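Quick one: co-fold with iron/sulfur cluster.
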Amino acid sequence: MPTTTPRTYRVKSFGCQMNVYDGDRMAELLAEQGIAPAPEGEDADLVVLNTCHIREKAAEKVYSDIGRLRRGDGSSPLIAVAGCVAQAEGEEIMRRAPAVSMVVGPQAYHRLPAMIREAGEGRRVTDTDMPAETKFDALPARGKGGRRSGPTAFLTVQEGCDKFCTYCVVPYTRGAEVSRPYAALVDEAQRLVESGAREISLLGQNVNAWTGENAKGQTVGLEGLMRDLAAIPDLARIRYTTSHPNDMTQGLIDAHGEIAKLMPFLHLPVQAGNDRVLKAMNRSHTVESYLAVLDRVRAVRPDIALSGDFIVGFPGETDAEFEDTLRVVDAVGYAQCFSFKYSPRPGTPAATMDAQVPMAVMDDRLQRLQAALNRDQLAFNAASVGRTCEVLVERRGKLPGQWLGKSPWLQSVHFIGEAQIGQIVTVELTSAGGNSLAATPLAMLAA
Ligand code: SAH
Ligand code: SF4
Ligand code: F3S
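Sure, here it is.
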């Protein structure tokens, strides 16, 4: 184990967008300590594995990743395991992986600098506290030291979950629902925009449960925050994810018809299409109440692109109950979705339920569900052909003069023409595949 101060770092984030956000914040924290990002292709002195515990495969990956971290000269870097596996299995990581010197949970990573000093003296340290003081107050301000943001940025506004769906580890790994204060968020958004962000995605495990007190002292929901962020002149687009159906207030729904910068996209997981299964999952909504929310959103924003998450093979799910999920998919017509085989997670109620569904059955159900979802995604994209829309340019494509970006409906769009990263280009969508669309800039059509 090295006993010196690391000069270079690499942060590898897995899992959800919030982990990506946390990874960025850890990188900023390390940079503030004078530790530099390791150049591409070179070994780092310090590696932070920012892990995900949501399904077994994601969690087990940590151990193989640790094994692969040997450096060119055969030595091992200083290794910190962060994220949700660190929170859930800190002790086990320390036992199974002697190469790891630091284990740090998602609510404690502001303490990394002190841990690195201890680890540098040869000690192994674990910090999986969920301290009352928040990491956000201890982290360096965004955009500090001239760090530039890309055209799209994440901003965690809410963290944790009180819903306790019976299959899910998040309430245990991330803790209780906490909303970050309004002023801190407006400030962070402003800094992100000043450092180059044109689009901000507001993040939370239950982002639509966010609540806070605005500058006038009024208690507002997420739509109140979005209204004030929309007033930042150079911010062009606002998105938010992930929402729970029961926290979709009428105020938030109405915002989709009122805030021009709020993009017409809603990720609203339903998980299953059968009320008995939803009850066993402790989702606390029904198929009908979920579909009613979507109807209300469509009433104010008819072109909204809908997205969701699905789990197949929850314990006890019968063939007929799975067919109900396919019926919901047919009824909604999603623009894009995530779907997973149920994975039993230690410590969750569903892991010890009777009638666990055999893997072969889950494989079959997932295949059928994904076929339906892919069909609908292609149909949604095909229906967009001929539309004129704005694309926020995110990067260069592989072809000469080609640019890649996103439509308002979160579709990947590519076009050839004059542009630069961060620019918003008006295009006509000309052809569609399952995963992306081709477009022509309007300026070129007019020429
Ligand atoms: N808070 C969000 C996201 C939670 S995790 C929400 O409630 O929607 C992202 C997705 O992973 C979930 O929506 C669910 O579809 C899936 N997931 C969570 N636990 C799982 C498990 N044990 N097995 C399989 N998929 C799971
Ligand atoms: Fe997990 Fe349910 Fe909370 Fe989402 S709402 S994070 S699925 S417990
Ligand atoms: Fe994974 Fe934790 Fe996110 S378990 S999905 S990294 S909240």
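If it helps, The CA atoms of residues 140 and 330 lie 47 Å apart.
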